[in-house]
Structure formats: structure tokens, C-alpha cells
């Protein structure tokens, strides 16, 4: 009997130690803030993300209150009411706009699905005559987007940070005549994360601001808005 028990123990497979899962803190609806962020928060994110820049280099990408348009801090605005606030004379502006490659309003969203939905939500504000374009990878090839931008007058554009930045760097998209660059700041995905909470999207947005948007704010009349 004793020998049998010894043989059974020798034949048994060694127990595999299970790795302990780290309990990540999840955002819950109960913890969500009632208000959105102010321009100060965006400036803080820039300072944190580009902390390795020298003081002189950071001055080139610093923003002041004058670089911002209205922000949806109270989170009470609908898409239509927000754009009516930042562009109250939209019909007159869009009718007079004749510059190719430079939409009057550019909106940046965290992903393609959200950008597409945002474009639909803004339909009432844009009106029948304004022409809009979706700028993200899933919609069409970048070469086709370049062609559309170079050949047509676009009034309203919505897309993802990386695609918008790529189009600007390829001289297919310009902020020279853009009035507002709006960040879809308060929207959260199914995991309750905002654009700024997702590492890859945040990095793309920060680079877009540093390389393209902030220089345009200083050189032209572009205002940044947080929706």
C-alpha cells in the first residue's frame, strides 16, 4: 500500500503556479466628473508629455487663453449648440469660404467610428450646402483624401489625430484659413476612456498639436476648442 502511494506521487504532474492577476483600477460611471476640462488641463498635458523639451523649446508650443475658443466645460452642449456658439455666423462664413485644403472647422476624435458618428451628429449645424469630409484610415486611402482636399472646397472636416497630421505634413491639409480646431475631449468609449486617456491616441494628439496646430495658432487665426 505504501509503495503504491509512492508510485502515484511520482506519476503525478507538478502543480503549475498560476500568475496572480493585477487588479487594475477601472473607471466607473460613479467616479466620472460632472464637468469637462478647461484649457489649463490641455496645457498641463502638453507640459507633461513634452517634459524633456528645454524651457526655450517649450515656449514655442506654449498656449495662452487667447488661443482658445469656447470649451464645453459644463458638458451641457449638444454638437449643434456648441458649434453655434463658436461659429454663430456659420452660414455666412461657409458661403464665403473658397479656399481648398483648408476647412473652416476641423474636429479630431479618438477613433474612426466616433469620427463618423460625430460627422453625422453635426449634420444639423453644417446645413445642406456645406461640404464635409471624414479623415481617417478606414474611410478611404490617404491618396484619395489628398485628391479630394486639393480639388474641392471643404467646410467641415472630422478625423483621427494621426491621419490629420499625415495630411498636413504632406501639404494636402492646411490650417491657414481654419477658424476652429476642435478636440472631442469629453466623449468616452465603452471602457469610459477619453481620447486623452488612451496612450496611442494621446501621443498622436500631442504630436499633432506640437507640429501643426500650435504653430498655426501663432501664425494664423486658429482657435482650439474642447468639446
Automatic annotation (TrEMBL):
SUPFAM superfamilies: P-loop containing nucleoside triphosphate hydrolases (SSF52540)
Pfam families: CMS1
InterPro entries, A to Z: Cms1, P-loop_NTPase
Stretches for region Disordered: 1-36
Segments of skewed composition (Basic and acidic residues): 1-16
Domain of life: Eukaryota
Membrane-spanning ranges: none
Protein name in UniProt: Protein CMSS1
The organism of origin for this protein: Ciona intestinalis (Transparent sea squirt)
